[in-house]
Amino acid sequence: MEYMSVTQAAKKWNITERAVRNYLKEERVEGAFMMGKTWVIPMDAKKPDRKIRAGSLPDTLIDRLKYEKKKGIYSGIYGELLVKTAFYSNLLSGNRLPLECVEDIIRENMIKSPNVNLDEVLEQLNHGRAFNYVVDNAQKPLSVGFMEKISHILSANLRHKRVSREDLSEQKPEGSSLEAVLLDYNSKDGSSFEDILDLHVKLMLLGFNRHYGGQTARLILFKECIKNKFLPFVIDEELKLSYYRGIREWEKEKWYLVDTCRIAGDRMTEILNRYDVLL
């Protein structure tokens, strides 16, 4: 019989190596065994059905996130988005930890990499907690208190709060305030995707929190997308410049930010399809 490694299985099944290892630990890969400290997997082994563990998993994104969070399932879409939202949002603000390190910190509560900065570790853990707060309260209306709660979670226990490099407040509209922005947004009878992006732009330009305003605004963007059944997305390093340009030029050329977010949305669609999740 021919065998394959964890890396080969991950490529064959189009999932992460961590997901393969989780399947192996759960004894869900038929015929796999340990040889020393290395997993050996039959070449003809089939990718386990993600629905085996849960029986009947919720279909919608918000319900799946809540379900996997409650059950502590990190090998599904909850774990993937928990890590990616933390890694990329903190990266935009200046956090330097690599993705592999963030995965270890958030999914396994372990620090395997040497010489890491404690505050940067806490920033990742705090973002994970803030993401959980958003998932638990996705259907609630926005308020100043809600946003302050997220900001508080993001900055908890830090020795030195990072001054974000995302400060766009030089373009802050005169006379605007967080209270007025939220009042205007909440007064709408249903929010369109453009309404949600408009809110995000205003929150970024307000600079209401000089430390973690960008992360807070992106978590609010994620929350409002899933609440209103729009495709959420993650702005990665490749889309960073287009994202900031779209924010700065929003009043002149709304299409630029919309197109950037749609590109990010296409990548999220691939994730949803991989986990058989609907909006």
> Structural class, from helix and strand content?
mainly alpha
Query: What proportion of the residues is helical, as a percent range?
Result: 55-70%
The major pleated sheet works out as:
3 strands, antiparallel
Tell me the name of the CATH homologous superfamily of the largest domain. Fido-like domain
Distance between the termini: 42 Å
How large is the count of helical segments? 13
Q: Could you give the topology of this structure?
A:
Blueprint: E1 3-4, H1 6-13, H2 17-25, E2 33-35, E3 38-42, H3 51-54, H4 61-71, H5 77-93, H6 99-108, H7 118-136, H8 144-154, H9 178-186, H10 193-206, H11 213-227, H12 240-248, H13 254-274
Antiparallel strand pairs: 1-3, 2-3
Helix pairs in contact: 1-2, 5-6, 5-7, 5-11, 7-8, 7-11, 8-11, 9-10, 10-11, 12-13
Explained architecture:
The protein has helices spanning 6-13, 17-25, 51-54, 61-71, 77-93, 99-108, 118-136, 144-154, 178-186, 193-206, 213-227, 240-248, 254-274; strands at residues 3-4, 33-35, 38-42. It folds into two domains: 3-46; 61-274, Fido-like domain (Fic-like fold), CATH 1.10.3290.10. It has 279 residues and is mainly alpha-helical. It has a three-stranded antiparallel β-sheet with strand order 1-3-2.
